[in-house]
Amino acid sequence: MTYRAPVRDLAFALEAAADFGRLAGAFPGADAETVRAVLEGAGALAADVLAPLNRAGDQVGARYENGRVTAAPGFAEAYRQLAAGGWTGLAADAEWGGQGLPKALDIAVFEIIQAANLAFGLCPLLTQGAVEAIEKNGDARQKALYLPKLVTGEWTGTMNLTEPQAGSDLGALTTKAEPDGDHWRLSGQKIFITWGDHDMADNIVHLVLARLPDAPPGSRGLSLFIAPKRLVGEDGSLGAMNDLRPGSIEHKLGIHASPTCVMLYEGAKAELIGAPNQGLAAMFVMMNAARLGVGVQGVAIAERAYQQALAYALDRKQGRSAWTGAYPSRLFDHPDVRRSLMLMKARIEAARAICLSTAVAADLARTATNPVDRDAANFRQELLTPIAKAWSTDMGVETASSALQIQGGMGFIEETGAAQHYRDARILPIYEGTNGIHAIDLMGRKLALGKGAAVRELVDDIMPTAAHLKSADDAWLHTVGARLESGLAAVQSATGWLIERRGHAQPDALAGATPYLKLLGDVVGGWMLGKGALVASQRIAEGAPDPDYWRTKIGLARVFSEQVLAQAPGLTQAVTQGSVDLFRATPEALGA
Ligand SMILES: Cc1cc2nc3c(=O)[nH]c(=O)nc-3n(C[C@H](O)[C@H](O)[C@H](O)COP(=O)(O)OP(=O)(O)OC[C@H]3O[C@@H](n4cnc5c(N)ncnc54)[C@H](O)[C@@H]3O)c2cc1C
Q1: 287, 430, 506: which to mutate for ligand 1, most atoms within 8 A of CB?
Q2: How far apart are CA 379 and CA 385, in angstroms?
Q3: Which of 101, 483, 556, 580 could make a disulfide contact with 346, Cβ separation 3.0–4.6 Å?
Q4: CA dist., res. 537 & res. 551, Å (int)
């Protein structure tokens, strides 16, 4: 089963749901024709080069031999093609060799690359994060030295946070940085470092969190360093190997072709990036980029799994269809299978639009000329990032599971590939901050943004769409509007409760964080599909070709509103009453 990039759906999501048009002033070159050409080009690379390597990548995987990592078969050549095609620098500044296109378009391309080959896609995903972190925090020399090589894909980047005793709790990191003349020496052990070593590029730029000798304890005492695999001369030339190496790679449930390395820093030469003890803030630039990237991975794996399930449902025949009466009938013609396929597609389109909207907000936060617009875009990006990460990756796992289910026993058999998607998807809610940690971030930091202004502004933006849908002369659009309206009421009630509880009953608020993220994600997703449905109904009214396509967009919004949004009041219950006093259960009472 191959992968076909959903170019039409991506272009539609950008335009109808993510308000890509708002970027026209800052990015005049990114017109509809360019968007389509870029997406089609990425689709060709994905179908011809990346997707065919996905299965061998799973079966053979990355290898660790003689202290070095070798990428899975074909990956090094595919990476060269990715870099040669300029795909690593789409959104980077032209000053560093990039193409200066919107991040939102880059994120759409990212979906295509990740869907074709999730394990492969992690390498450019992290490199992109390193580019953003260096661009934001580096000095002029560091930018000139590292950015052109990373942007053009000659070198790749990694993110080194995790240590055995410090996973979610970054304040527990112990890797040390000692001064040595005009530079620093890093010693310590990092674990789970994605693409920490490989043979696909000439050099690897490790961004590493470590502690200076006199650093305060906890996360306020972390500094960010650049430690390249091979030392770099002032002219960019490559020198000797640095004193760092991969100690081993992990054997994992999925993404076998993405080497997950133990990295040993043995007095590695490094340079400080940003101010001392401000490393976590500097690293957050990379983490936010990677969080959105991982959210997109959730959309991507879901789309890939869905395409396979749809093809299977059209091919496999079982039983008699209650609709057509045909015997034997395609699985597709059984109402329960059709429901499942439509729900999958609706949730994929909702998550896609959430991720693209987050990227549009990031573009606006960077380019808006008016400070009010810039601040609003910043809030929106901050608020949507945990939703893009957690909601989309939960959806990715659930959709990979539903897709496997549609293929019955064959889904469980490795040869069909459905099992690989399911295994690959399972890491997404775990890495880049577990989804539980993102829910806490949403409930804590993000609800507090602008003293609650970020959520208020979001609700204010959704209301007119709900009203517009409700007043439409179309029963389906009306239903979507009504469900969206009651979803908003549920969000307002849960938000008010959380804000009130945080003050005097923190554990209650923390226990309600995950259902709150789901609730907000469901409502934002419903909003995105509702916006798309309004555009689709406009197209139908204009007599646009392919009315089935547009009618189905309205149908997907309706399926989502009836099967997902309808649960919003229940989720508010789960946030509020469901979480009160939960923390009082003892281990023994729970069976320990
Ligand atoms: C394949 C893979 C690739 C990775 N790539 C990288 C990489 O490139 N760079 C890197 O630095 N790291 C990487 N990681 C590490 C990854 O980001 C961590 O595994 C993740 O952040 C969780 O940390 P942990 O595994 O220590 O789990 P823990 O922190 O031990 O968490 C375990 C569980 O407890 C919950 N929990 C923890 N603390 C709290 C709390 N305060 N409140 C409520 N719940 C809590 C979590 O949600 C989770 O469900 C990777 C991991 C894997 C498996």
Answers
A1: 430
A2: 10
A3: 556
A4: 7
**Pairwise CA distance, residues 32 & 23, whole Å:** 12
Q: Which residue has the tokens 């305060």?
A: 216
Query: Is 77 among the catalytic positions?
Result: no
Compute, in angstroms, the gap from residue 70 CA to the centroid of ligand 1: 25
DSSP-assigned letters across all residues of 37-84: HHHHHHHHHIIIIIGGGHHHHHHH--EEETTEEEPPTTHHHHHHHHHH
The answer to whether 265 and 175 have CB atoms below 8 angstroms apart is: yes
Give the C-alpha separation, 263 to 252, whole Å: 17
User: Is residue 250 a contact partner of residue 431, using CB atoms and an 8 Å limit?
Assistant: no
- Indicate the pLDDT class of residue 529, thresholds 50, 70 and 90: very high
Residue with tokens 């990237």: 293
Does residue 437 have its Cβ closer than 6 Å to ligand 1? yes
Atom of ligand 1 nearest to the CA of 435: 47
Backbone angles phi, psi at 277, to 5 degrees: 65, 10
The three-class DSSP label of residue 397 is helix
**What DSSP element (H or E) covers 204?**
strand 203-210
Mean pLDDT of 20-32: 97
pTM: 0.98
pLDDT tens for 181-238 read: 999 999 999 999 999 999 999 999 999 999 999 999 999 999 999 999 999 999 999 9
How far, CA to CA in Å, does 269 sit from each of 4, 197, 231, 243? 44, 17, 8, 7
